[in-house]
Structure to design on (315 residues):
């Protein structure tokens, strides 16, 4: 029988779902700010899952995408498939599906709404209130690599710590932004940051500098103490969502190129990483007040306590 494909509108969800005859795969578009979870490897890098519950044929379905860090050690590279296959999704502590290998892989990003996300239906009947719930995805703690040689080698484990696909990318500054230069910040840089609902947070400082005829963005960041294990590796996710704004216009997005400051000394005057914004200094150098901005987002949705990042003002 010839396969056919039809497009089904779902106004309540504000999305298009492709429904294939004969019970084939269903796809949808995720919201602009979907639920995120994931985890990290003990050697660095990790994975991120973006997901949502959808109504497919009157049953609860999980739809989603996943990504992984570009920068990983050989010990964790290629292990994501095993981690996904061991995962499961729950609805109010009832297991809906086991194995998440059906999710589609996309490059590590902060936006998961542009790629069609595959769905898999469970046996649970759909109820309208489920559309507002955050998928309860559980990824078990596991050893992904153990050296079996005579000499004791590395042991690499995976833990569900929240989105982790942008983590290893801190080592890819040149690949993402091109060559960087270092310049000390002035004594009154723009400052921004935020706190995790579980405690602790990050702070960043930045300014625009003229180098040649172009405007360069320069910045540093640091973490505060008192963080939970769920947020200790989340700084790359926060920085990737940050932006430097001048006169109300975004000059550069993704602040992972900022240099990390390890001490609690003031960020003013610290040696900063600078990258070319690609814009002439004359067009933005006098654009107006410069600010460092971060959005609020869910760092860790569950299955236990939900953790959010909330931007704060002040030094």
């Amino acid at each position: 029988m010839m396969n056919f494909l039809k497009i089904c509108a779902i106004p309540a969800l504000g999305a298009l779902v492709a429904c294939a005859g004969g019970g084939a795969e269903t796809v949808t578009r995720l919201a602009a700010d979907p639920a995120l979870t994931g985890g990290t490897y003990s050697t660095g890098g990790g994975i991120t899952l973006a997901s949502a519950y959808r109504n497919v044929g009157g049953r609860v379905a999980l739809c989603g995408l996943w990504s992984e860090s570009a920068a990983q050690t050989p010990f964790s590279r290629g292990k994501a498939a095993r981690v996904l296959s061991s995962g499961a999704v729950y609805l109010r502590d009832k297991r809906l599906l086991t194995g998440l290998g059906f999710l589609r892989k996309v490059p590590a990003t902060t936006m998961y709404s542009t790629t069609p996300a595959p769905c898999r239906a469970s046996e649970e009947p759909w109820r309208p209130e489920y559309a507002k719930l955050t998928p309860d995805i559980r990824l078990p703690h596991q050893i992904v690599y153990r050296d079996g040689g005579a000499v004791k080698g590395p042991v690499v484990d995976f833990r569900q710590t929240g989105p982790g696909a942008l983590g290893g990318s801190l080592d890819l500054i040149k690949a993402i932004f091109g060559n960087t230069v270092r310049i000390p910040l002035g004594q009154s840089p723009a400052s921004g940051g935020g706190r995790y609902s579980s405690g602790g947070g990050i702070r960043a400082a930045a300014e625009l500098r003229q180098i040649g005829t172009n405007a360069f963005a320069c910045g540093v960041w640091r973490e505060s103490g008192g963080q939970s294990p769920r947020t200790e590796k989340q700084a790359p996710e926060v920085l990737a969502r940050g932006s430097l704004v001048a006169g109300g216009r975004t000059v550069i997005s993704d602040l992972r190129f900022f240099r990390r400051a390890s001490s609690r000394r003031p960020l003013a005057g610290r040696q900063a990483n600078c990258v070319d914004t690609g814009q002439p200094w004359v067009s933005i150098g006098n654009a107006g007040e410069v600010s460092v901005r971060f959005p609020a987002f869910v760092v860790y949705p569950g299955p236990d306590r939900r953790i959010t990042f909330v931007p704060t003002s002040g030094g």
